Each structure stands twice: as structure tokens, then as C-alpha cells.
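Entry 14: structure prediction run for O-methyltransferase domain-containing protein. Input pasted below.
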Amino acid sequence: MPYVPAENIYSAYEMALIKQLEIPKVEDYTFLKDGDVLSMLGINIEDAKLYVDCIVNEFPEFAEKMVNRQYSDAILKFCSLGKAPLFYSKALKSVLSANAVRYIYHALLAIKQIKTKFPEQKINILEIGAGFGGECFWIQTIAPEVVQSYTIVDLPLVSKFQEKILAHLNIPCKFCTIPDRFSIDEAPLFVISSYAFSSLNKYYQDIYNKFFLSRSSGGFMVWNNWTGYYPFSFQYKTEKARPSLNPNSFVMW
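Run finished. Output C-alpha cells:
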């Protein structure tokens, strides 16, 4: 299909985050009860159960570790964010939030691509549009050995929100709101974006392509496939996104 970039307005979402940032303690945040936040980041529990199935079927070793409570502390800490509704997964023997399950699955897919492309090598990860930092948290929790550095590029206000969340979770991360000031060392650059890049307008996509994507050695995106694919200058492959909730794709290079 021909490429048609998105035209989204984020003001209601940003206003909702401003209200959260006025709350002194992160543990008192309620953003996962706010409709304007959920319209951007939300996922319902029934859909989350389909992501549980994907984790169990595609990453059985990780699922076994969850069953054996290897990640119980991380799950407890992450699922307490934002006062999210929780559900019990019999398959994973864990109490989870819907957002946690989706973040975990996408983190596992990104880690798989990283280890396939750069075996036994540390890389610089750059995430375009990071929600409330879930992939950053789970990638560095599940596979810290692959991360040389982790940088998030997002709207300035959203980055402030992510910075508070990730500091609360004790996860190292850098933030970039001015693309031409982005710098990394000699380790390969791996770009991640779950839904965000495909939802940007063409102006920002072209900027991020110039300063980030053109410098990348690999990447993983979840692509909102109503737009067609951005005219990337590098070779990439696609798969139908799992679970099959909509016509989205996984984009890998």
C-alpha cells in the first residue's frame, strides 16, 4: 500500500502526564487509570492474555523462569506503577498488569533480534517513543548483558515522565530530545520502536531517520500498519504481528 504518514495530536496525553508529574511520589501515580493515557498506552486484560500465550509458546524458557519466580521482584515493582488493574496468569503463575505482559513480550522479541544479530556483543539501544519505559525496564532486567547504553527519544514532557519512572525502578537510561546532539560510542546502534515511529508525522520520521535510523546496525519495531511502510534506506523484513489483534507488523533489520 502507498505510504501515508500519521497525523496525531498528543495534547490530551501530555496534559494527563503533567497532572502525574505534580504528584511527589511515583508510587502514588495513577496514570493507568486515566482515559487520556490509556488511549495512548492502554491494553485490556483479555488482549493481554493473548500476549501471555505468545510468551509461553515462543519463549518457554523465560516462561519457566517466571513460573519459578525468578522475576517476581521485578514484576511486583513494575506492576505497581500507575495503579493498573491486575490479573492472575495460571500459565505464568504470576499476578500481572496488561501493560507489563505486552512490554515483556516485545522486550523478548527485541532481545531475540539483538542476540541473533550481535551474538555475545554489547550494543547501544535507542528507543523511539517509549511509553512509560516498559521495554527499557524489561530489556535491562531480562538481558542486561546485551546493553552498552540505553537512550530514549521522545517528547520533552514525556521524557520527564519516563525519567521519573525509570529512576524509581533503578534502571539506567539516557534521554535525547535534540536529535542532532545524539552521540554513541563504537558499539553498534540498535533501534527499537513499538508503535511510536509509525505513528509520527512525516516531519519527525524524516528527522529520526536522518539522525538515528541511518546510523543503526539493526532494529525491531512494532508497526501500526494503517500507513504502509516508511521508505527506509536499508533492507528489512516484516512479519505479521502477534497476537493477531489488528493488521500490525513486526519490522526487523
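Notes: The chain has two domains: 11-101, 104-252. Will compare against the previous run tomorrow.
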